[in-house]
UniProtKB/TrEMBL annotation:
Protein name: Anthranilate synthase component I
InterPro entries per record: ADC_synthase (IPR005801), Anth_synth_I-like (IPR019999), Anth_synth_I_N (IPR006805), Chorismate_C (IPR015890)
GO biological process: L-tryptophan biosynthetic process
One Pfam family recorded for the sequence: Anth_synt_I_N
SUPFAM superfamilies: ADC synthase
Taxonomic path: Eukaryota, Viridiplantae, Streptophyta, Embryophyta, Tracheophyta
Domain Anthranilate synthase component I N-terminal positions: 85-249
Record domain Chorismate-utilising enzyme C-terminal: where: 388-505
Annotated source species: Cinnamomum micranthum f. kanehirae
Amino acid sequence: MVAALTVSSPPPWKTLQSKTSVSSRRNASTIMTFSAFSPSFKCLSALSTPSIVSSSSISFNEAVRFSEASKNGNLVPLYHCIFSDQLTPVLAYRCLTREGDWESPSFLFESIDQELQGRYSVVGARPTMEIVAKDNKVTIMDHEEGSRTEEESSIEEDPMEIPKRIMRGWKWSRPSQSQLTGHDLPADDAFCGGWLGYFSSGTATERYVLKKRLPFSCAPEDDRNLPDVHLGLYDDVIVFDHVEKKAYVIHWVRLDRYSTVEKAYNDGRKRLDILLSRVQDIDPPRLAAGYVKLHTCPRGSSSSKMSSMTKEGQACKRAAMQAKEHTLVGNIFHIALSQHFQRRTLADPFEVYRALRVVNPSPYMAYLQARGCVLISSSPEILTRVKKVNGEVLDHSTSWDLPAALPVGTLTGAPKVKGRHLIDQLEVAKQLPYFGGFGGMSYNGTMDVALALGTIIFPTSPRYDTMYSYKGRDMRREWVAHFRAGAGVVAEGEPNEGWRECENKVGALVRAIDLAESTFL
């Protein structure tokens, strides 16, 4: 395999949109008249939903070409390319995941900058398989087979090895433009299907694969009972191309599930049609509208609603002083301690995400529903990206060698392993997804994972499920938003300055909750 690791490239959905006209660069031979578009799907809304770009005359031999593609691999995508001028990523996500369904794994990934929009946005729901790891217990759920397997992961094995083991023997076959719809999948530039989820800081590496491992018993208390790793295998995704103004509706067919290629194709077509109908042949769901009031006066000050998870804040100061002592005696010369905050709100997590897109647009915007929590992030920083380049790597190296990039020194300390040990000793609450990563590992071997900075966690555990009546009209759930920020401690630093820095770093997250409350409540 030919691959490379980098930590400086923009994310796949970050490829920046050019300000120049796209139409002037298109080949005239690719332009089609509106009369050639397939009339297969009817919109029930007032405005026409996107028409299918590929015509029936182009795809009548699709089954034959699918059979040809299946000779080169056992993972073949079926897809349609549609107009996206009446379908936004936010609306598409709400089409796939209904409002109030917070338990269904799903995701919306975007890239937004102050002046330029990322080229690709990706939406997915209903994974066919899930991997959930907590400590050394791993649960594998195969929704296609209806099976659930729990196993004790060996202390020698990284949980990230499990999806690698499952995919052993899978090979994707990339249809060319002429083979299927005439629109080539942007599989090298955007997540088009595969594994996607999050992994916690300190779990996928230090407690499994380092020679000087940290036992699970040394980890701080986890009062939210969240998984350390959650990955979903997404066969159905929608990729928005904001430059070309179109969207790819994709379903992946795994041939090893079928006795013949014909059965695989027929079932794949049915599933693709179902996915298309969920974003086309429907009454579009209503999204709550509201005025954007960036200079809002929240109900009560933000600081009064936000509290540190440490005991009266004194534990933070003691931890900082102890860390400084370690730097003075030479045990470590830098350590990144963090402070954990929580905030109660009646704003829905998706409403908070919509507000966060306005308050703090970032290269890695994510709304991710996982087992036990909803993760919202506006991360500015890449963790690892793997893509094909000209060069050579070791034969056994793959995109799943993520531990090679962990732990991140700026978020642990130097030396790294000693820093991780001290963080476990000094911090009261477990970091969980914070300072870990979230992203996707595609079927074609590419990977793009962001650091979980600027991240809010909404646990969906019943312990937080308190219902309140709002304005006597409807019932809203009260959520507890958790977020964390860190600051470095060095020998000549002032610990109190570090904690003030933490409070400043979470300011944008708190402001997003304020905006969601003032807009949608």
